[in-house]
Structures are given as structure tokens and as C-alpha cells.
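3.2 Worked example (two chains)
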Amino acid sequence: MTYLSLAKINLFLHVVSKRNDGYHNLQTIFQLLNYGDEMEFKSREDGLVNRNYSNKAIPSNKDLVLKSAYLLKELSGTKKGVDISLIKKIPIGGGLGGGSSNAATTLIALNKLWKLNYSKEKLTEIGKTLGSDVPVFLSGKTSWAEGTGELLMPITLPKYFYLVVSINKQISTQEVFTHKALTMSPVQRKMTDFSDVSNLHNDCLDAAIDIEGEIEFALLYLDRTANHLGLARMTGTGCCVFVAFEKEKDALKAKQELPSKWTGFVAQAINKSPL
């Protein structure tokens, strides 16, 4: 079974408050993109869980794909195993949700492959323990999100084309959320306040720029590209940035003109995952 494990961008990100458990309450819009990693799952009868890919950046004990598989195997008590292949396209540690998306895809695929027949609600309860972004990929819908990202309301947004740019650096999410420059938006807004989704800010941006100043240069660069919509923004806690276009050809032209030190891709917004 082969799946496309999608990327996401945060169209805005407000940090509402710090929770007693050390996490933060947020408000954001998760926009799904028709771009992602390719994952393949082959059932095994000997119960072993193998990853048939090299991932030097993430050791096996921190690999969310393996964590998802082992957790589902433990909870279900299945005697089956799996070989998992992964072709990684989503930049690691860029705020695009690649690890969380891989975890969600693993849960969905193995639920089917192992014939567990768990409901989406059950998978979401499992997914919450793996990461705060996992539920949106399990829901498979572009969504308004609150709480730590697990309270979701599906929304329909324009299918713009996005140029997503990586400065090929990584920032620790924990470092951003404990940084002195992290800003807060304590007044909770209603979803209707953001119906046009235009020029919305990310409370993590100042902290991320203080840690990695090249983010600011990338944003300024994207704001100078021709025929784009709105302002360039950073997704998640960084380091990837993005800008929207109405026409794919304009996004592709902007990608071709990127400085060689950065990498990027063009993807279209989608409201429902093919998963």
C-alpha cells in the first residue's frame, strides 16, 4: 500500500496562553498542500516492524513512524508486522508537519493493513499522544485549530498555489517557545474574524528570527516576488516560509529565481486529503 503523506502550512499562528502541562494553547489555520512524502507499507507475518529507509537526521528511537507503528501494535495486540519505506520530500524541522504527517499516515495505513477497524476517533486519541499536529493529518481536512492543535473545525479555503521556501536550517520548537522574543495573543478570536485569511501574523516569528536571522531575509525576498498575494509568512516555528499566488505559472517562475542557497517547492492548497 502506497500513500502520499501531506505537508501543511500555518496560515497564521497565535500563542494564546501557556498551559500547566508546559504546552501552549494556540489558534491557527492548518492549510493542507498537495505535496508530501511517499510512504509504502508491506505486511509481515513474523511481527517485526522495519523501516527500509535511511534517516540519519532522526534516530530510530525518535522516529515518529516507528513510534506510531509500535504503539498501534502494542494497543491492538496484533501479531502482524510491517516493512515501511519512506521517500522524504518534506524538509525536516521546517514547520511543515512532516513527522506528524508521517505518523498519521502510518496509523491510517496500518489500521487498514492489519485489519484493526479502529474508528477515526480512536486513531485520533492515539495520535494525540504522538504529537499536537498529528490530529489534523488524521482528520484529513484543512482546519481552524485551537487547544494545542487538536481541536479542529474543517474549513474551505481558496486553492491558491504556494511557493514554500526552506533556508535549509532547523530550529528547535522548544527553543522558540521558551525564547524571550515569543509574543502572545491572549485575546481569543472567533473563526469568522479570519474569514479572508489575509496578512495574518505568527507569534513565533520574532523568536525564530532572533535565533535564525536568515528567515527575515527570506521573507523580504518573497515579498518582492512578482504577482504574489498578501505578505510572505513563516509556517509553524520555522524555518520554512511561504507566499501565495493565484496562478501556478507565477509561483513556478518565482521558484526558478530563488537564490541557490535556498530550496523550495510549489504546491496547491487542498481542503481534503486524498488519504
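3.2.1 Second chain
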Amino acid sequence: MAIESMLLCSALGGVLISAVSQSAFVGLLGAILIGAIVGFVISYASFIGKADLYLTNIALNLAAAGGTLFVMFLTTGEKSTTAVAIKSMTLPSINIPIIENIPILGRILSGHNILTYAAFFVTFLVYFFIYKTRLGLRVRSVGENPKAAESVGISVTKIRFIAFTLSGALAGIGGAYLSMGYLSAFTRYMAAGRGYIGLAASNISAGSPFGSLAAAIMFGTADAAANSLQMTDAITEFVMMIPYAVTILGLVILSIIRNERKKKIIQRAMVKAQNNTDN
């Protein structure tokens, strides 16, 4: 639930660090570090300080919304964007040979920011980490049943710290993309609910990395469509709500599908039990 704060903090941090270092790569590393720190803070407040996890996340989202503006004003003297006061470095875009020359398909697959392509690679890394490594198995076990994990000697608090910190680092990459790829500056509230859309993508896929990627592509397509429609005579307010409406619609459809599956499973179990009773 705190992805929004991770995105905002890392987006601003990436811009400021890249401007000081005059290196987009250093800015990216800074954004990742800041995202990881936010994840660590959540872990400490919730699992050491015993604060309610959900309230901590909500409080951090609210704090980041105002805090990033405060830091931006202190460092640049601006309250809306860093574009005027400082020069942020931007991460490069990549043109894929041969594919870039293909009509229509070339514009879809080529010429995007390097972090766009990195997102697909990171999906494979996350899948490998969660399902193919010992630490990933422990993360899943703690997430599904912490008491059972603790009973076999796994440090639940340690695993939670690791999971939240890694999640913050990944969100930091997203924040860097917003301010050093999608735009070349930090603007107020630039996350614009994308953290909650990411949360919805994870929920729709039940935490599956590849399922989350597919849901993210769907939501990204809706966002791109909204941006394109803003250039037409369509009502701006209606166009801006498209990505969020698609998110809600996706969650509703998923809920219906899951409920139908549960009904079928229950019906099969009842039929099987009835057959056993008759026999």
C-alpha cells in the first residue's frame, strides 16, 4: 500500500542526485537506495515499533505527498516542478535494430526508455527469486503463514525486512522512470495514483510476477490511450479517469471469476461427498 510514497520519494531523490552528480546512472542508484530506505522504514515502524502496518503505509503515503514538495521547495525554491531550477539527467531510450524500421510494430516495440525494457527483465528475476531460491521460498512461507515459518526456525522479522526493502528498491526503479524517463523533472504528486494501480495489478494476478506484468501492460495501455485522447476534443476529466476505471473494472471482473471458481469447487466437493455417502 505504500508504493505511492516509494515512487514519489525515489522520483525526487533520483532527480536531485542526478543533478548533483551529473550522472543519470548515479541518479538511478540513488532512487533505488531511497526506495529501499522507505521500505526499511515501513518494516521498522511496523515490525519493531509494532505500529499497524496498514495505517503506517497510509501515513507514509500522505507524508510523502507533502514531504516531497517541502524538500523540492528547500532545494530548488519551486513548488510545482524542478524543471526550471535544476537540470536533471535522463535515462536513455533504446532503438532496437531492424524492429525499429517495421511500420507500426517498430513504434510499439522500439524507442522506449531503457527502464521499460528493464521492467520485463526484472519480472524474470523476481520470478526466479521467489520460486527458485531458498530465500524466495522463505519469503513466500512467511507471507502465507508466518507462524508455521517461525515454527521451523525462520526469522519472520528478518524475512519481512528483506522483503520490504527489496520491494522498496524495485519501486525506486519505477520512481526513477517517472522523473528521469517518462519526464525529465520531478513534478508535484507525479505518481498520480500509479502506486495503487500497481497494487491492483498485483492483486489481480494473486502475486504472480508474470500475471502482474500482464495486468500492468493492460493498465499501461489504458493510460496511454488516455494520454492520446487528451489531444482530441474528448472531455478531459472523463479521459483522465480511464486508467482508474479500467483498474476498477479489472478488479470487479476478477472478483466475479474467483467467486465462480469457488462455487464450482464447492459444488464438486459436495457432489463428491454425496457420491461417497451413497456408496
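3.3 Remarks
DSSP finds twelve helices and two strands in the chain.
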